[in-house]
Amino acid sequence: MAQYKEWELEEVDVIDIETHHLVVFNDDVNTFDHVIQTLIDVCNHTPEQAEQCTIIIHYKGKCSVKEGEFEKLVAMRNAICDRGISAEVR
Q1: What burial class does residue 39 get, using C-beta atoms within 10 Å of its C-beta: 0-12 exposed, 13-18 middle, 19+ buried?
Q2: Per-residue confidence (pLDDT) for residue 16, from 0 to 100
Q3: 75 with 14: CB under 8 angstroms?
Q4: How is 23-84 classified by DSSP, letter by letter?
Q5: CB 21 within 8 A of CB 76
Q6: Which end of the chain is less congested by CB atoms within 10 angstroms, N or C?
Q7: How many CB atoms lie within 10 A of CB 44?
Q8: Angle at which helices 70-82 and 32-43 pack, to 10 degrees?
Q9: Nearest-CA neighbor of 44 among 77, 66, 69, 74?
Q10: Could you give the CA distance from residue 7 to residue 64 in angstroms, rounded to a whole number?
Q11: Positive or negative CA dihedral for 39, 40, 45, 48?
């Protein structure tokens, strides 16, 4: 005869964290190497990831390079803008 275990349901609080995107925009001023190095330094991208984002930025005009909590992305946006690259948090 099979024995069954009784399960008790427990209520848990769910925290809904709104995800934001750090978007970097193309321009005619900054070089590929500068944007790649910035993404590596500021966003902790791998060189390959930074290069792929930079190509998307160049051909599409913008790219979401990071997603997360607003406050963290604002600090990254400020660091990117300090290097002369246009970015915003959405």
Answers
A1: buried
A2: 66
A3: no
A4: EEE--SSS-HHHHHHHHHHHH---HHHHHHHHHHHHHHSEEEEEEE-HHHHHHHHHHHHHTT
A5: no
A6: N
A7: 11
A8: 140
A9: 66
A10: 43
A11: positive
CA distance 57 to 71: 23
What token pair was written down for 49? 């990831």
Separation of alpha carbons 55 and 26, rounded Å = 10
Contact 73, 35 (CB under 8 A): no
Distance separating alpha carbons of residues 87 and 57, to the nearest angstrom: 11
